[in-house]
Specification:
Layout: E1 17-20, H1 24-59, H2 65-97, E2 100-102, E3 108-109, E4 131-132, E5 137-144, E6 156-160, E7 169-176, E8 186-193, E9 207-211, E10 219-222, E11 227-229, E12 232-238, E13 244-248, E14 250-255, E15 258-263, E16 270-271
Antiparallel strand pairs: 1-2, 3-4, 5-8, 6-7, 6-9, 7-8, 10-15, 11-12, 12-13, 12-16, 14-15
């Protein structure tokens, strides 16, 4: 293995020379294949020329049909041998091209696993180097099967590393698996990110958020303000005179620390978020920031 043509960790474009294996054995095999092809091509041409002469003699009844058939068989055999030599030449050419290893993608190479002078072989379990694509980059994640209907097609996706103070990377959902994993009850999805700022890195764990749709004029309250009683869910509404009113509500759904109210509240009304266990209808409250 001669010296490599790149530096570890340096971004390489597609087609960049990575390694060059000693080509001398393959160059010799190519020259031999070329010589065999020229020899067999010449023999094929001679056999075809002889066939044409015998065909003319057969038309004049100067040779038997059996003699002509033998000459024609010889010509067909020479044709097949020449085609085999052509295939061997193509294979030798391909093997010589394999001595030059180029990057198949734009990406970042990792640590080189071999050194100059090491012996390499086909189908070796040890890769020469691993190149990871970063632009674009793909993020794999899963969602519960109950939410599959909410993922109809290409959607906006955001990804952010835990604890990162950088803005979330924006991408697009590009793949939804064709079956639910029965062991986990989830379905696999994949999103593509341009990653122009290198915010995401191969192998990194990230938090993913999918924007399913925009719900206009939604009534949102802190989820901790919603209580559950014998008659269902309710909240304590703070009236203008700073007294409370127990109001039954219908929660459409809960997302994290927010609850979306379907009915039971009006826009602009205030609700109690702490100390509900000490409250009753008509109790006085005070607002604390």
């Amino acid at each position: 293995m001669p010296p490599v043509g790149f530096k570890e960790g340096e971004e390489v474009p597609r087609g960049r020379l990575l390694f060059k294996i000693d080509p001398r054995p393959y160059q010799a095999a190519l020259r031999q294949a070329e010589a065999n092809f020229l020899r067999d091509t010449a023999q094929k041409d001679q056999a075809r020329s002889q066939e044409r002469r015998y065909q003319e003699l057969l038309a004049k009844n100067f040779v038997s049909k059996e003699a002509y058939a033998q000459i024609r068989t010889n010509a067909d055999t020479a044709e097949a041998v020449a085609q085999g030599s052509r295939a061997a030449l193509d294979n030798a050419t391909l093997n010589l091209e394999y001595c030059t290893i180029r990057s198949p993608i734009d990406g970042y190479p990792g640590k080189i696993q071999i050194q100059m002078g090491n012996l390499v072989k086909a189908n070796d379990t040890l890769a020469l180097v691993v190149i990871n694509q970063v632009h674009p980059i793909y993020v794999n994640f899963s969602v519960p099967e109950q939410q599959l209907r909410a993922v109809p097609g290409p959607l906006a996706v955001e990804a952010l590393a835990p604890g990162s103070d950088q803005p979330a990377a924006s991408g697009t959902l590009v793949f939804v698996d064709n079956a639910v994993d029965p062991s986990t009850g989830t379905i696999k999805l994949r999103a593509q990110f341009p990653n122009s700022e290198n915010a995401l890195w191969p192998g990194q764990f990230v938090n993913v958020r999918i924007k399913l749709y925009d719900q206009k004029d939604a009534l949102v309250v802190p989820s901790r303000s919603v209580q559950t009683g014998p008659n269902g869910q309710y909240v304590f509404v703070v009236k203008p005179d700073m007294t409370t009113e127990l109001r039954k509500v219908t929660v459409e759904r809960t997302e994290g620390d927010r609850a979306i109210i379907a009915n039971g509240l009006e826009k602009g009304e205030r609700v109690v978020t702490q100390g509900q266990l000490r409250l009753g209808a008509g109790a006085k409250v005070e607002v604390k920031s």
